[in-house]
Amino acid sequence: TQGAFSEKSHPFKMSILGLKKKQPKTFKVKVITMDAEMEFSCEVLDQEVPKDSPITFHFLAKFFPEKVEEELVQEITQHLFFLQVKKQILDEEIFCSPEASVLLASYAVQAKYGDYDPNFHKPGFLAQDELLPKRVLMQYQMTADMWEEKITAWYAEHRGIARDEAEMEYLKIAQDLEMYGVSYFNITQNKKDTDLLLGVDAQGLHIYSPNSKLNPNKSFPWSDIRNISYSEKEFTIKPLDKKKDVFKFYSSQLRVNKLILQLCIGNHDLFMRRRKVDSIEVQQMKAQAKEEKARKKMERQILAREKQMREEAERAKEEMERRLFQLQDEARLANEALLRSEETADLLAEKAQIAEEEAKLLAHKAAEAEQERQRLEVTAMKTKEEKRLMEQKMREAEQLAVKLVEQSERRLKEADHLKQDLTEAKDAERRAKQKLLEITKTTYPLIAAYSPPPAPPEASDSSYESMPSRLDFKDSDMKRLSMEIERERLEYMEKSKHLQDQLKELKSEIESLKLEEQQQQASVYSLHSEARGYVQEPVYLPHSNVRMDKPSIVLSYRLSAVMN
């Protein structure tokens, strides 16, 4: 029953209550790895615990591998070791030349950012990353952009390398550096001697000068060391060859001496293990790691192929899109060209139709012009014949005019002769009258005494009436002669007037022919100009408003000269 169980009768329950009352003390522990921080609560046993809370521990590799590619089996181990070595190089705990620093920085960037993409990794993307030791940055007068350009040039060549592969390439370069994996301690060869440096690494022990950590003065490989021991501050290195001298050195701090001994024991033990066959457990771990690496490599290859295929598909797609856009542009341009060609064809067809109509019209006009030309040629031939006849008539008129002039001159000469004869006749009559008067004076003196004086030769005709009957004959002859002269003069005047009328009529006919010829030639030139596309330049006669073409100028001047 329930009452049957009491605290005294149940020692187990009493022990539980005692445990509750006597809980152990705990303290906080902070573990810092290369990429994370973790806190724990630990119980206090027999060890002395520092009063600091939390107590900080750094999770680091104590012993460095000789060959990182063979000894770093797990990927997480490789990653943490990569971060540790990288930090030591940047903190200048491991010396690295500027060229090797740039190459290591490119692998670190590849491990962090993956493949280089110029569209994504713009200039300045490494500004916040610590990639080079300060000593290298101070050694050269180069800007951060110039260092980034050099690192990016190497980084672009690591395309296709995965993160673990980039970290492994980084470690493979780092393990060949002189200060890789070396732990340095201050020592003296004797109590009064100068200071030296002791270096402990995976290969053995090395003695350095204080100012040179790269080239040891003396080295003791693990394969040549038979025993290492120390007593308080004195270390003794016994070589495997007993003939060689024992090397002793001194360290002043006991805690450091213990650390040196632990490092020597651990590195020597690892040195000997590396030269023996791996245990089954290690072989299994390496086999699993190898299979895991092969599987990841296969996955990466598959992903790489898929990525490559995707990139090729994207490039093909972009090319197809570009080609599509190009074809669309070409189709648009071809369509526009087709529309322009159709418009041009329509315009050319319209122009061809217009040209055909114009050609028909011009052909019609040319036919009309040809007919007109033929008619004008016939008319010109007739006009030419008429001109010839007119010229002949003009020549005849000229000859007639010359004859008339000759006759006129001859008549004038005859008239002059007649006038001279008349004058001579009048002189003879006057002389005859003088003689008659003289005779009368002698015959009739009484009549002469009472009669008036004789009239002068210029007396009027009434004096002739008083002449004797024998003088009547000469007067009648004179009258008859004067009448003939007057009649011939009238005939000459009538003929001259008739000739002038004929000349005027001939002149008017010539003017009308000239005007008609000018109109015909103007119409011919106008028709030919319309058919040939030009107009004959007209010629204007001087001092006249009559327009004539050049071929009729000579004839017109000739006719004008004749008419004048």
UniProtKB/TrEMBL annotation:
UniProt topology in membrane: Peripheral membrane protein
Domain FERM: 1-275
One GO term describing the cellular component: plasma membrane
SUPFAM superfamilies noted in UniProt: Moesin tail domain (SSF48678), PH domain-like (SSF50729), Second domain of FERM (SSF47031)
Residue intervals passing through the bilayer: none
Subcellular location: Cell membrane
Coiled coil feature spans: 286-435, 489-523
Region named Disordered: 448-470
Pfam short name (any one): ERM_helical
Listed name of the protein: NF2, moesin-ezrin-radixin like (MERLIN) tumor suppressor b
Organism: Cynoglossus semilaevis (Tongue sole)
Taxonomic lineage: Eukaryota, Metazoa, Chordata, Craniata, Vertebrata
